Amino acid sequence: TKLKYCSDCGSSNIEFKTPQDDNIKRYCCPDCNNIFYTNPNMIVGALCIRNNKILLAKRNIHPRKGLWTLPAGFMENAETLKVGALRETMEETMSEAKVIMPYSMFSLPHINQVHLFYLADLLDDNFGPTSESMEVKLFSEDEIPWDELAFPTVERTLKLYLEDVKTGDFIFRDEDINLW
User: Fold this and answer.
1) Closest among 93, 87, 157 to 125, alpha carbons compared
2) Which of 151, 157, 63, 142 lies closest to 105, judged by CA?
3) DSSP string, 101-166
4) pLDDT, tens digit, for every residue of 22-58?
């Protein structure tokens, strides 16, 4: 998206150039010397477990509407990673969880995102659909709808978890995914 006006001074004299001492082209306002930086978006979520089952939500919003996912979404300003993951869990599943540990993180430079999932305990069986999810369900390993998962990072996180269940060794993973 082309920047048309400076949000600091209101000038329409915006240039797309590499600022001095930088190496990336950015929108710059020569009238007030403001440089507009764009950074990756953080997606935070939770792999919630209850009675050895995994909580998934069927998306009721785009993108990937109608497909299953772990509860996750964009981190908001002024919240921590954990708070964002738990908020998204509540917004998408009406459930409360307790974070155990950071579990998986994926850098997706092709879409300027970082996805971070926490491993969490689902605190009770009070979960259900919301405006963001048309269905919410606990899945055992053999019930996971692998062909209906919304995102590669969700599929990868689930596979890592199922491997860790077999070994009993739960470790944090940091991986790069570049689909372009």
Assistant:
1) 93
2) 157
3) EEEEEEEETTTTEEEEEEEEEE-SS----BTTEEEEEEE-GGG--GGGBS-HHHHHHHHHHHHHHH
4) 999 999 999 999 999 999 999 999 999 999 999 999 9
- Tokens (6 digits) for 175: 């991986």
Name residue 50's amino acid: R
Give residue 31's region: left, alpha or beta (phi > 0; psi -120 to 50): alpha
Q: What is the pTM of this model?
A: 0.90
How far is the C-alpha of 28 from the C-alpha of 9, rounded, in Å?
A: 12
Residue 1, classified by CB atoms within 10 Å of its CB into exposed (0-12), middle (13-18) or buried (19+), is exposed
C-alpha torsion 71→73→76→82, nearest 10 = 40
From CA 122, how far away is CA 79, in angstroms rounded?
21
